């Protein structure tokens, strides 16, 4: 897909990867860019900066996904590319509350289901449409320390696969974006000081947007802004037990380093 003259919807468009995608789609000549976010003011600022439109939406609810698709269609007539990009993170394990698990599920998984349910009928009726699902390298591998994030991002990859398998012959194109570390608030924290082993080798959101443009043009299912993720994924498939052993060693090193870094911060 070439996004020139296309209508694009981006959820989580006010910040980070979403904001970079909105800006890049506008630069590529999209006919319309719809910036959707629960942060209404942030969505408006991004939309105003690129000549798009802003829609306030809590995509963890089906109602807001339906309203978002309706609003975009009312203005532009159709949606060519829907980017289900909104997501949340978390460093907790199995001990996290049921409410936190459910929130991660609703935002990171059900938002994709609700979006597909709302946008697919029109795409399938005309035999053309594209869905981009932002997952994570954690959806192919795993996330050190983040059980809800790992589980839900795996589910996003699975749902995107299912959509491609089930509707690919009907004109639907599907890509799954799986970046590793990206220099956004999700990684860095609100003050930019969050300790994370992923900061080493992290890339800018604009580099992710570059990878997305290339991936869409090639209509690739997996879009990997960090090429090394493909090699990690191959190693996992080649020898699952060896990969798990390696991840256990990484987990131990990460935990040790994070403890040392937090102690250094506390001394300053």
Describe, in short, the structure shown.
With 268 residues, this protein is an alpha/beta fold. Helix content is 54%, strand content 12%. The protein has helices at residues 16-27, 40-50, 62-76, 98-126, 147-167, 185-188, 205-218, 228-238, 240-267; strands spanning 7-11, 32-37, 53-56, 81-84, 129-134, 172-177, 222-223.
Model description:
The structure is a single chain. The chain is of the alpha/beta class. It is built from nine helices and seven strands. It is 54% helix and 12% strand. A seven-stranded parallel beta sheet has the order 3-2-1-4-5-6-7, with helices on both faces. Helix 5 (147-167) links the parallel strand 5 (129-134) and strand 6. It is globular and about 55 Å long. The N and C termini lie far apart (50 Å). The model has no long low-confidence stretch (mean pLDDT 93).
Q: Layout of helices and strands, plus pairs?
A:
Layout lengths: L6 E5 L4 H12 L4 E6 L2 H11 L2 E4 L5 H15 L4 E4 L13 H29 L2 E6 L12 H21 L4 E6 L7 H4 L16 H14 L3 E2 L4 H11 L1 H28 L1
Parallel strand pairs: 1-2, 1-4, 2-3, 4-5, 5-6, 6-7
Helix pairs in contact: 1-2, 1-7, 3-4, 4-5, 8-9
């Amino acid at each position: 897909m070439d996004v020139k003259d296309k209508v694009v919807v981006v959820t989580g468009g006010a910040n980070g990867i979403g904001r970079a995608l909105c800006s890049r789609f506008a630069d590529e000549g999209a006919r319309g860019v719809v910036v959707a976010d629960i942060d209404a003011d942030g969505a408006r600022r991004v939309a105003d900066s690129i000549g798009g439109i802003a829609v306030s939406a809590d995509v963890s609810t089906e109602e807001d996904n339906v309203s978002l698709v309706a609003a975009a269609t009312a203005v532009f007539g159709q949606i060519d590319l829907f980017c289900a990009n909104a997501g949340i993170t978390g460093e907790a394990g199995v001990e996290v509350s049921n409410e936190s698990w459910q929130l991660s599920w609703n935002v990171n998984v059900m938002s994709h289901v609700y979006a597909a349910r709302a946008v697919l009928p029109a795409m399938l009726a005309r035999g053309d449409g594209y869905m981009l699902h932002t997952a994570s390298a954690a959806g192919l591998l795993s996330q050190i320390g983040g059980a809800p994030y790992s589980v839900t991002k795996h589910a996003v990859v699975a749902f995107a696969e299912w959509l491609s398998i089930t509707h690919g012959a009907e004109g639907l194109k599907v890509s799954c974006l799986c970046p590793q570390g990206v220099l956004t608030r999700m990684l860095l924290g609100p003050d930019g000081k969050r300790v994370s082993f992923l900061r080493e080798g992290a890339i800018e959101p604009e580099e992710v947007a570059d990878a997305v443009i290339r991936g869409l043009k090639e209509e690739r299912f997996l879009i990997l802004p960090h090429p090394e993720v493909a090699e990690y994924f191959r190693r996992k498939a080649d020898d699952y037990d060896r990969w798990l052993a390696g991840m256990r060693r990484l987990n131990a090193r990460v935990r040790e380093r994070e403890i040392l870094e937090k102690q250094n911060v506390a001394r300053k």
